[in-house]
Structures are given as structure tokens and as C-alpha cells.
Design brief:
- By secondary structure, the protein is of the alpha/beta class.
- Helices cover about 45% and strands about 10% of the residues.
- The longest helix is centred in the middle third of the chain and has 24 residues.
Length: about 475
């Protein structure tokens, strides 16, 4: 028996009344934003905010999405006229939205020249980024460029033909400088503390290696506001696509499922203008750092605990870990410890925020894999766990839960057959050198990974070893 599929999502699709469709004329939409990192998170977060902003106040703020490595998502986006659906799921029900703010996609593999031409086009006023922490090529010791990072090395050698995100930014800005145009605003949306300042430093450093005048121009005229983003977006599955098809009445190969909650806190520094993102609930502030620390240490830090615990206990999803009362208690203990390292966060009730996090992690409709969160630990743990532990210990506070998370991570590294981490070889070598008397020592010896304040704190390292001994005994 032949299975008949619904027609592919397109501009001509008629949606059921319960589906939220773009509230503006997409035929009039022109690009003003170039986004690097056309993955699930961007499409369920910044693109959704932009969709709402366009409906509230229309302007030339369409998004051209760039995937530096993949071509499939670009081809699928073209086949659907730039449209895709996002299904917000909770115990209360499913709500489908079709997003139209992404006008087209480009691939670094196939469209490098076109991407660079757009970056040099004055119509592009903002470049946003979501490429994950490891893609920036940050030296873990200096915080500057890692000149041995593959894309950094390649882009320093051949700046006119970039492969990495920093290389693209520098070449795009070089072309604008040469043409006498103002720079575009660079808005990082990755989980890095003070992410705007970090990206600014990397861009200026690479630009300086090429042309000191370019670096001075970027330093003087460039804008790199920091931002904090939050929405749990699991990797899409066949189940995701089937659910979307049922709700929107069309086949959507780019469908996403996510939680209803989303948050975006942004430093309001956009010399060339910006969409009215506040129409979708974005919060504009003078200093985003308190919000970043809140999210990194409470949400992301707890997520890492859940992920490594789940991987050790063979629990596939975050919701599975949270369904075990003992494990939920560990998460609450971690939040209670981490919150003591935070400054006041304007407009946020931290107690309510932590309760919200528990509710979000428990969401029975969100299939967020612990394996997905567990990847890239060497890139994530320094800001999620280590930084808070340093502050807690310096102030005479408790960092025992942080020690527990580090022990979970080490145990995970030892257990996992393969680790998705840019420093995987170093981690496996450390695991092979572990001894019974000081099992964590090889990990603390990895260059640039742990802050010196933790490496030299014998009492805290003893806590890590004690937690490892318990895990191994269990």
C-alpha cells in the first residue's frame, strides 16, 4: 500500500487556523541580517524573535542564514521558500508557528563568494552568530586566538578565502573598510561569558595580523554587543517532523520542536539600527553580564550535571534524569550552591527562576538528549562550573556540587567509548594515566583547562577525588 505524503511546505501552503503564520508580507521582505550558524537553535530563537519584530514593525530585516559546513539545510530551505515550522511543546499542548523571517540560506561550501559579497553590502547591518563555543578558535590559556585551531590557522594563511567564523567576519569587515562603508554590528548569541567582548578581541587580533589599520578601524567603529540567549531546542527527529506535518498540514523537513519558554537579553548598541526585537520579549540592557552568569551557572551548569549523570546512568533524556527524585535533589543542591556566586540580576526573581528551570527540565514533551548536552565539556565547563567554583572558594563558600559535576564529567570521559570534544585525545590520554591515589590529577594537568585557583586547591581537588571514588564504588 502506497503511503501518500502531504505536499511540501511552501509559500502557497494554506495553514489551519490554529497555526501562527508570518504576520507581514514576505514578498516585500529584504535582507538586513546575515546569520552565521543556520542550526536549530537560531531558527527556534533569534529567527522567531525577528519574525515577531517584523509583524510589529516591518522593515528590511530579513535574515540570510549561513551554514559554514552543511549544504543540506540550505537546499531544504530553498525547497520550502525559506519557511519552516517551530512547535512549542508542553503538558498543556502543542502550538505550531511557521517562521518566515529567514529569506534564504547559503553554504560556505558552495556560496563563499556570495556570503562575502553580502557581508560587504551596506544593506546588511547586523551579523548574528550561533556556531557553538569550539568554533571560535579561542586559546584556552590566553583567551585570544588559538593559532593552531584549524580554521584560524587557515584563515590567517589565506584571509581572502575564509573557512571559520572569525575569518569571515574579518574579511567582510576588510571589504567594507576598503569600500569606505561603516562596519556591520556583530551580535554573538553563543554561550560565552561577555560574548561580545570575546568576539571583538578575536576579530581585532586576526585583523591586526593582516592589517593594523583595519584592526584600528574595527576597534574604533565596530560594535560587538553581548547577549544572553535561552531556549531548549532538542535535535529534530522523524517524530518532530511527523508532529509538525500533522499540525501544519504540510511536509516540513526543517521542522523543530522546543519549549514555550524563550529569553534574549541584549546590550543595546546597534549604530546601524536593529529590528524591534523587544516586540517578541527581548530585554535590552546596559550590561548583560549578570544575566549571562545567571544562565551559565544555573541553567547550563545544572544541564551539565544532568547530562553526565544521565550518561553514567543510561538515561537518554533530561526529563528521565529529572524523574528520579534523588537526582532532582542533586540538581536543586547545585542551583542553591551556584546562586550564591551571582550578583543581583535586575528584573529577575532568582528563586522563581530556579523553580522555572526545574519545571523546564521536567517538561515531559521535550526529548532533550543528555548525550547532546554532554559534548564539548572542555569548552563548556570552564564558564559553567569552574568560574563559579573559583568565586565560591575565594569567598570562603561551598563548591562541593561543582566538585561533584567535575567528578561526573571525568567518570563520563572514562566510560564513553567516544567523546565528542575538541580535546578528546587529551582527555582519553588523561583517563589512561589515572591512579588510585589521585585519580583526577591527569585532568588537572591538561594545559589551560582548569583555572590555577582550582589546580592549586588541594582540599577542593580532594573533594573531586572523593566524589570519583563514590561514583566508581556505585
Amino acid at each position: 500500500m502506497m503511503i501518500r505524503r502531504m505536499p511540501r511546505l511552501s509559500a502557497s501552503t494554506a495553514f489551519p487556523a490554529h497555526v501562527a503564520a508570518p504576520g507581514y508580507d514576505r514578498g516585500l521582505l529584504k535582507p538586513g541580517i546575515l546569520h552565521i550558524g543556520l542550526g536549530a537553535f537560531h531558527r527556534a530563537h533569534q529567527a522567531v524573535y525577528t519574525d515577531t519584530a517584523l509583524a510589529a514593525e516591518f522593515g528590511n530585516w530579513g535574515i540570510v542564514g549561513v551554514s559554514l559546513r552543511s549544504v543540506d539545510i540550505v537546499h531544504d530551505l530553498a525547497a520550502q521558500g525559506g519557511l519552516y515550522s517551530v512547535v512549542a511543546r508542553s503538558a498543556a499542548g502543542d502550538h505550531a508557528q511557521v517562521v518566515g523571517s529567514v529569506t534564504r540560506g547559503l553554504s560556505g561550501v558552495e556560496n563563499q563568494a556570495e556570503i562575502l559579497a553580502l557581508m560587504a553590502n551596506p544593506a546588511i547591518r547586523v551579523v548574528t552568530i550561533t556556531v557553538t563555543e569550539k568554533a571560535y578558535g579561542i586559546d584556552p590559556v590566553t583567551g585570544g586566538l588559538d593559532r593552531n585551531h584549524p580554521s584560524v590557522k587557515a584563515d590567517l594563511a589565506d584571509p581572502k578565502s575564509p573557512t571559520g567564523v572569525i575569518g569571515y567576519l574579518v574579511e567582510g569587515l576588510w571589504q567594507r573598510h576598503a569600500a569606505g562603508l561603516p562596519p556591520f554590528t556583530v551580535l554573538c548569541c553563543d554561550n560565552l561569558p561577555t560574548n561580545g567582548r570575546i568576539v571583538r578581541r578575536l576579530v581585532i587580533e586576526m585583523a591586526g595580523a593582516r592589517d593594523p589599520a583595519l584592526a584600528n578601524w574595527i576597534a574604533g567603529q565596530g560594535a560587538f554587543p553581548s547577549s544572553m540567549v535561552d531556549r531548549i531546542v532538542p535535535a529534530a527527529t522523524d517524530e518532530t517532523r511527523e508532529l509538525a506535518e500533522t499540525l501544519i498540514g504540510a511536509e516540513d523537513r526543517l521542522a523543530l520542536s522546543t519549549e514555550p519558554f524563550m529569553q534574549w537579553v541584549i546590550e543595546d548598541h546597534f549604530p546601524a539600527g536593529r529590528p524591534r526585537w523587544e516586540a517578541g520579549g527581548a530585554l535590552f540592557v546596559d550590561d548583560v553580564e549578570p544575566y549571562e552568569k545567571m544562565k551559565l551557572r544555573l541553567l547550563n551548569g545544572s544541564h551539565s550535571l544532568v547530562a553526565y549523570l544521565g550518561q553514567l546512568k543510561d538515561l537518554t533524556f533530561v526529563r528521565d534524569v529529572m524523574a528520579v527524585p534523588e537526582y532532582q535533589t542533586l540538581v536543586r543542591r547545585h542551583m542553591a550552591e551556584a546562586v550564591k556566586t551571582l550578583d543581583p540580576v535586575p528584573g529577575i526573581d532568582l528563586g522563581r527562576y530556579m523553580d522555572q528551570l526545574i519545571e523546564r527540565f521536567e517538561n515531559p514533551t521535550i526529548a532533550h538528549k543528555t548525550q547532546q548536552i554532554a559534548m564539548d565539556g572542555t569548552q563548556k565547563l570552564p564558564q559553567r562550573i569552574f568560574a563559579g567554583a573559583v568565586e565560591a572558594l575565594a569567598n570562603g563558600g561551598d563548591a562541593s556540587s561543582a566538585a561533584y559535576v567535575v567528578a561526573l564529567w571525568i567518570a563520563y570521559v572514562c566510560k564513553a567509548a567516544e567523546i565528542n570534544d575538541p580535546r578528546a585525545a587529551e582527555l582519553k590520554a588523561a583517563a589512561a594515566r589515572m591512579t588510585a591515589d589521585d585519580p583526577s590529577a591527569p585532568f588537572f594537568a591538561i594545559p589551560g583547562l582548569f583555572p590555577q585557583a582550582l589546580t592549586e586547591n588541594g582540599a577542593w581537588r580532594a573533594q573531586v577525588n572523593a566524589e570519583l571514588e563514590k561514583l566508581n564504588a556505585g
